[in-house]
Specification:
5-stranded mixed beta sheet; 11 strands; 20 helices; alpha/beta; 441 residues; globular; single chain; 4-stranded mixed beta sheet
């Protein structure tokens, strides 16, 4: 009797087990080959997204923290892990792209977008952002700037167009009775005086290549309004007398003791420490650091326009010629290998909008991307107001390092300007290298 009961129970258990296995198999087969994001949206499961973005100082952190906080309600199931973007001119991204291990969403600049989408590293975003608020909230020209040469969207703008400036430590000028320069001759004199007093005339974080490249453009764009842009598109040749004049001026400053011998191993933090502590009189950088500069140094910091690199009266007439900001733009891209394509792409679109908003709300930078200008939550400091007023006067723009659309040209130009900044070449040798660099496209 007991044996019959045991057999019956055993048979029943086997039947139930077969039913369960069959049901599970059918469920798995119905989902096979589908995007994992559909599973997450159906079950309400968490979606983990790795975000590699600039996150080193308040100018970068405040807008990103604001954006992520704003998106929590809209994307309650998305968990974001931030990986700070290294200041290495995109070298780590290249390695990650080559190995197929890019983060889900990552910081992307100008020429990289073109290279990455052509190599298949970037997710094409057209279908994913079509039903988001992206186009309706962006200025038409800003939305058009998202499209690559093939007419498709591969990246999303997150930052305004910024420009290069020369920041000065006003206290250091006053303490040493040095006139704040208004043109090239006065700048040269200031460099000579500071050098004679064993004060570093200019700190520059040449450990990164873009500062040196941008510095030369401050000279070039005094002679040719659109600077590098004109050089790259062939409007002016590398051996033009105007390019030669720009190079001669920079080399003259370098030979007068402009930078330190350790400039090429100096990071931004090191350069800023020299500048803010009164050990260096000047520091070239982008306008995006204006608020952070004032927050840390107050009224002791000011900036000069690139027009200070022009001769005499030309300094006044070239104030409208800005350095950088006139090429391709800064934004974020989505890896083609991300597991949750739809969720990640739509989150990226929302993140781009909120980051743009955050730069105004947190940093006081007026938007050049959104149709409606967000309200700055604080009171604009005088230096930021001066920067905003300057932006309104700009008529022409050159291009930053990351706005070069050809990586080979960008690298070759960067190498040439690095040698000029270090005083490692003659002007004639520099012109030859620059000519060869432009011809590499």
């Amino acid at each position: 009797m007991k044996k019959n009961v045991v057999k019956a129970l055993s048979l029943l258990t086997s039947i139930l087990l077969i039913v369960v296995i069959t049901a599970c198999g059918n469920e798995n087969s119905s989902n096979s080959g589908s995007d994992s994001s559909s599973d997450d949206s159906a079950t309400g499961g968490k979606v983990s997204i790795t975000l590699m973005e600039k996150y080193s100082d308040p100018v970068e952190k405040l807008p990103l923290d604001y954006a992520l906080a704003e998106l929590k309600e809209e994307f309650p199931n998305v968990e974001v892990r931030i990986e700070p973007m290294p200041r290495d001119s995109g070298q780590k991204l290249k390695v990650l792209a080559a190995s197929g291990n890019l983060p889900d969403i990552f910081h992307l600049e100008g020429a990289q977008a073109e290279v990455f989408y052509k190599s298949g590293s970037l997710l094409q975003l057209d279908e994913y952002v079509a039903d988001t608020e992206l186009e309706s909230k962006m200025k038409p020209q800003a939305f058009e700037s998202l499209k690559g040469t093939d007419g498709h969207i591969y990246y999303l703008r997150t930052e305004n167009s910024d420009n290069g400036l020369l920041f000065i430590n006003k206290d250091l000028f006053a303490q040493n009775n040095v006139k704040i320069p208004g043109n090239y001759d006065e700048l040269l004199e200031a460099v000579k005086v500071f050098h004679s007093k064993d004060i570093l005339p200019m700190a520059i974080f040449a450990k990164e290549k873009w500062p040196g490249l941008t510095f030369f453009d401050m000279f070039l764009s005094r002679e040719v309004p659109t600077g590098y842009k004109a050089l790259v598109d062939g409007s002016i040749s590398a051996n033009d007398p105007l390019v030669l004049k720009a190079a001669q001026k920079e080399l003259e400053l370098v030979n007068s003791g402009l930078i330190s011998k350790s400039a090429f191993t100096t990071s931004y933090d090191d350069a800023f420490a020299l500048f803010s502590s009164g050990k260096a009189a000047m520091l070239p950088n982008g306008s995006w650091v204006t608020k952070d500069m004032y927050d840390k140094m107050g009224d002791s910091v000011d900036f000069l326009l690139p027009s200070v690199f022009a001769d005499g009266e030309k300094a006044e007439t070239t104030k409208v010629n800005a350095v950088g900001g006139g090429g391709s733009y800064v934004g974020i891209g989505v890896s083609a290998n991300t597991k949750n394509k739809e969720v990640t792409a739509k989150f990226a679109a929302a993140l781009a909008l909120k980051l743009n908003e955050g730069f105004t709300v947190k940093n006081g930078a007026p938007t050049t991307i959104l149709k409606e200008n967000p309200v700055y939550e604080g009171t604009l400091d005088p230096l930021s107001q001066k920067k905003n007023d300057y932006v309104e006067t700009i008529e022409t723009m050159s291009i930053f390092d990351w706005e070069f659309t050809d990586i080979k040209v960008k690298t070759a130009v960067g190498d040439a300007t690095e040698k000029l900044l270090g005083g490692f070449v003659t002007v004639e040798e520099f012109i030859k290298q620059l000519e060869k660099a432009v011809e590499t496209k």
